């Protein structure tokens, strides 16, 4: 603030295995979201390196390869505002595939419809996000990750704005995806959801404490 | 579904705001189209009106001159081999050029000297309808001659002959009535007597003869040299001269009107484009979170850029079509108000409408370049603050 730089993360070093379900916990301001954003390439760290397999994601000229990662391997879901309000449920699900002037291939549209049906939104394909509940919107975001066959899902407080029952539904869906082989890295401030992960990393003042 | 679905869906979502923007831009397009129609019509109308203030081409017999001097006495340049032009053939030759539609008036003249009340006076025989076509500035006290035995006096001649409207003067032994007197023009017209060309041809025994022909040509859209060249081809034995100063003055007047219309159009266009740019800048700020979502999904900068440019382009194309149609309609009213509707009608062209739409689509895309670039370079981290 006022031009002062604040160090959010300090000496953070973690390894995440493929297929792992990791939760990141900590008090408000501990750097959880920043760490998630660094891991998902949405924020470039001032110092340090991030590897995805053998690929260095923090190299200076990695902009186009980061785009490539974001469109194929990585998927991010947020606590709020993860859908474009003027696109239908189906269009939001297919958003990763609508980047060019070429129409989305029919088989991918079919896959999207099937995925929406699997998560209970098959009859709401043409609805706008404004006509869905918070839980339904979150499920659409997850469906988007499923359709593009993302290998890693970064979830920032996915249940933060949901009631308990809906939160449970979302966690069950994440668990299902994990069982199918997806790597999930989730930030949460709810201990009961953190416990559902295989491993928990705790941050305090930007450092890994546990 | 493709990248175009995104700007189209956003336009649909904000239909009221988009419609307002289209309306404002279309008003600008309408003004420009109307001004363009008016400048085309006014240019032609103005030139026709200016042509009633004098000719800009003179067709005269080719003359040879000989400089005569002997024993220290110099007689000056003597003209010889001067034949009159044949009126009918000359007028027909002028009318039959390729650019005949650019010929407004052909006014043949026979010049001679006669005695009026025993005073030598210069006389010009004219065809009254054609002559008035290029002498609309004459302020005549009385009327132009309607009978063969009537004449029209220049202001100075009227004073010299002490004549007024209705006076009877003796010309070649016959009585001629002064039908009118031309108000002072400050030019050659003040010093001559005008009479019907046929009457003078008969009096001077020069059937079908004319001394020269004045031509009022409409020069806008083609150089006067082309018209002169074509007349010369048809009249190889004549001398054809363009009065460049008159041509230049007229073209200056016409160009002034057209340039004024163009200048106003540019101002309108810049204003409308600025409104589009500001609207797109506002849209970029409002949609930072949307940009964040797109970038988090792997959308490259140029793809975000395309989304905003396409949105602006759609607004421009729709405004162009609406504006062209409205401008075409408004042109009728504008020409009516300018009292030009009787002679000229706006012309609708489907091709021009398409070109207008594409041109204004291009303008709005240009206007949106900076806002689109600003949106495109937003990094996910910056957009995440909005998320």
Low-confidence stretches of chain A: none
- CATH architectural type of the domain at 21-84 and 135-208 in chain A: 3-Layer(aba) Sandwich
- Secondary-structure-derived class of chain A: alpha/beta
Radius of gyration of chain B: 33 Å
**How do the SSEs of chain A run, as a string of H and E?**
EHEEHEHHHEHEHEE
- Average of the residue pLDDT scores of chain A: 88
Helix content of chain B: 40-55%
Number of strands of chain A: 8
Please give the most extensive interface between any two protein chains, plus how many residues each contributes: A-B, 38 and 25 residues
How many distinct domains of chain B? 2
Overall, the morphology of chain A is globular
Biggest β-sheet description of chain A: 6 strands, mixed
The N- to C-terminal Cα distance of chain A equals 29 Å
Strand order of the largest sheet of chain A: 4-5-6-1-7-8
Regions of chain B with pLDDT < 50 over 5+ consecutive residues? none
Helix and strand composition category of chain B: alpha+beta
Strand content of chain A: 15-25%
3D structure, described in words:
The complex is a heterodimer of chains A (about 210) and B (about 375). With about 210 residues, chain A is of the alpha/beta class. Chain A contains seven helices and eight strands, in the order βαββαβαααβαβαββ. Chain A has helices at about 30-40, 65-70, 90-95, 105-120, 135-145, 165-180, 190-195, and strands spanning about 20-25, 50, 55, 75, 150-155, 185, 200-205, 205-210. In chain A, the strands form two sheets. A six-stranded mixed sheet of chain A has the order 4-5-6-1-7-8, with helices on both faces. In chain A, strand 5 (about 150-155), helix 6 (about 165-180) and strand 6 (about 185) form a beta-alpha-beta unit. In chain A, helix 5 packs parallel to helix 6 (about 165-180). Chain B is an alpha+beta fold and about 375 residues long. Chain B has two domains: about 5-50 and about 250-385, no CATH class; about 55-240, no CATH class. In chain B, a hairpin with a 2-residue loop joins strand 2 and strand 3 (about 75-80). In chain B, helix 1 crosses helix 2, helix 1 (about 5-15) packs across helix 10 (about 300-335) and helix 9 crosses helix 12. Chain B has twelve helices and 14 strands. The interface between A and B is medium-sized, with 38 and 25 residues.
């Amino acid at each position: 603030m006022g031009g002062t730089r604040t160090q959010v993360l300090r000496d953070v070093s973690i390894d995440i295995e493929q297929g792992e379900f990791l939760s990141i916990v900590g008090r408000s301001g501990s750097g959880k979201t920043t760490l998630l954003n660094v891991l998902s390439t949405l924020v470039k760290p001032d110092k340090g390196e991030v590897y995805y397999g053998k690929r260095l994601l923090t190299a200076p000229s990695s902009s186009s390869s980061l785009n490539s990662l974001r469109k194929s391997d990585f998927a991010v879901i947020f606590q709020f505002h993860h859908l474009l309000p003027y696109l239908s449920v189906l269009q939001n699900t297919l958003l990763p595939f609508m980047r060019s002037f070429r129409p989305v291939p029919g088989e991918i549209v079919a896959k999207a419809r099937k995925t929406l049906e699997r998560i209970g939104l098959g009859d709401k394909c043409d609805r706008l996000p404004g006509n869905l509940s918070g839980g339904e919107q979150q499920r659409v975001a997850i469906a988007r990750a499923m359709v593009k066959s993302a290998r890693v899902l970064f979830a920032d407080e996915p249940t933060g704005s949901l009631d308990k029952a809906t939160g449970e539904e979302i966690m069950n869906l994440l668990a299902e995806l994990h069982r199918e082989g997806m790597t999930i890295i989730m930030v949460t401030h709810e201990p009961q959801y953190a416990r559902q992960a295989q491993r928990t990393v705790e941050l305090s003042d930007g450092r890994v404490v546990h | 579904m493709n990248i175009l679905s995104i700007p189209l869906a956003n336009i649909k979502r904000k239909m009221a705001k988009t419609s307002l923007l289209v309306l404002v831009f279309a008003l600008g397009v309408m003004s420009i189209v109307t001004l363009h129609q008016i400048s085309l019509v006014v240019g032609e109308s103005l030139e026709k009106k200016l042509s009633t203030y004098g000719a800009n081409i003179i067709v005269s017999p080719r003359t040879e001159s000989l400089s005569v001097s002997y024993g220290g006495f110099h007689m000056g340049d003597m003209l010889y081999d001067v034949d009159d032009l044949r009126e009918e053939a000359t007028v027909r030759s002028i009318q039959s050029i390729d650019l005949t539609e650019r010929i407004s008036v052909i006014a043949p003249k026979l010049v001679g000297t006669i005695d009026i009340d025993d005073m030598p006076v210069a006389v010009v025989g004219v065809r009254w309808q054609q002559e008035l076509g290029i002498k609309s500035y004459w302020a005549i006290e009385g009327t132009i001659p309607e009978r063969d035995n009537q004449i029209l006096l220049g202001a100075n001649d009227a004073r010299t002959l002490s004549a007024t409207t209705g006076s009877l003067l003796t010309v070649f032994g016959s009585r001629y009535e002064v039908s009118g007197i031309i108000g002072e023009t400050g030019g050659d017209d003040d010093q001559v007597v005008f009479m019907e060309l046929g009457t003078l041809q008969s009096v001077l025994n020069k059937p079908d003869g004319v001394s020269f022909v004045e031509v009022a040509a409409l020069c806008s859209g083609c150089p006067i040299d082309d018209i002169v060249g074509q007349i010369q081809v048809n009249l190889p034995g004549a001398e054809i001269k363009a009065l460049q100063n008159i041509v230049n003055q007229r073209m200056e007047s016409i160009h002034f009107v057209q340039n004024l219309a163009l200048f106003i159009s540019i101002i309108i266009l810049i204003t409308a484009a600025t409104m589009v740019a500001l609207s797109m800048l506002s849209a970029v700020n409002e949609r930072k979170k949307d940009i964040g979502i797109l970038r988090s999904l792997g959308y490259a900068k140029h793809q975000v850029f395309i989304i905003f440019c396409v949105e602006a382009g759609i607004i421009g194309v729709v405004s162009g079509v609406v504006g062209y149609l409205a401008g075409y309609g408004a042109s009728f009213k504008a020409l009516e108000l300018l009292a030009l509707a009787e002679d000229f009608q706006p012309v609708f062209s489907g091709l021009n409408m398409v070109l207008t739409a594409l041109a204004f689509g291009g303008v709005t895309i240009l206007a949106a370049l900076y806002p689109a670039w600003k949106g495109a370079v937003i990094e996910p981290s910056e957009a995440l603050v909005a998320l």
